[in-house]
Amino acid sequence: MSENVFECPYCQSENIQSYNIAYASGFSNVSGVTTGVGVGMSGRVGVGVGNTVGTQQTVLSMMATPPKKKSTTSLFIMGTLGIYFGLGLVLLVSGLSKSNWSLLLYIGAYAILIYAIHRRTVWNRTVYPQLRRDWERTYICLRCGNKFRLDY
Predict the structure, then answer these.
(1) Contact between 30 and 48 (Cβ < 8 Å)
(2) What is residue 22's DSSP assignment?
(3) Residues 6+ apart with CB under 8 A from 18
(4) What angle do CA 132, 133, 137 make, to 5 degrees?
(5) How far apart are CA 145 and CA 139, in angstroms?
(6) Is pLDDT above 80 for 120?
(7) Are strands 138-141 and 16-18 parallel, antiparallel or unpaired?
(8) Greater confidence, 129 or 50?
(9) Spatial CA neighbour of 150 closest among 142, 141, 139
(10) 69-77: which pairs have CB atoms within 8 A and are 24 or more residues apart?
(11) Is the pLDDT of residue 95 over 80?
């Protein structure tokens, strides 16, 4: 067996690539111009021009997508809007909007939202860094398709 650490443990191929390189190299910018001519039933001629601009991503790059942090900002915005409109509508329809219970329901809903934001923050600080380190050490064999981690 070879002493090379940088080889696939399944097929021993040296044709491997790290996930971060596979992900970054899988994007390409696409730009194109299309022109066309058409003739209508009444004999009139029409000309059209179209632009295509965008980004293309390979399947290998999609497979090697890095882990993402959980967003606390979007949760706060969507949660606040949901509480404001959703709970407000429920309380208005049920007739509880003018009672003391409505204040308790709002406080409870915001407490749940704050707890959910706290859980995401803790996940981002504790779990995400390890996922990111694992991703940075993950390789894929370009011969057999095996993915594996190299701890060096």
Answers:
(1) no
(2) H
(3) 136, 138, 139
(4) 115
(5) 10
(6) yes
(7) antiparallel
(8) 129
(9) 139
(10) 69/124, 69/128, 70/120, 70/123, 70/124, 70/128, 71/120, 72/117, 72/120, 72/121, 72/124, 75/113, 75/116, 75/117, 75/120, 76/113, 76/117
(11) no
Q: Report d(CA 42, CA 17) in Å as an integer.
A: 59
Are the C-beta atoms of 12 and 1 separated by less than 8 Å? Answer: yes
CA dihedral for 42, 47, 53, 57, sign (positive or negative): positive
Contact, 105 vs 87, CB < 8 A?
A: yes
Report which residue type is found at 105: L
Rounded CA separation 18/61 (Å): 11
> What gap in Å lies between CA 8 and CA 126, rounded to an integer?
30
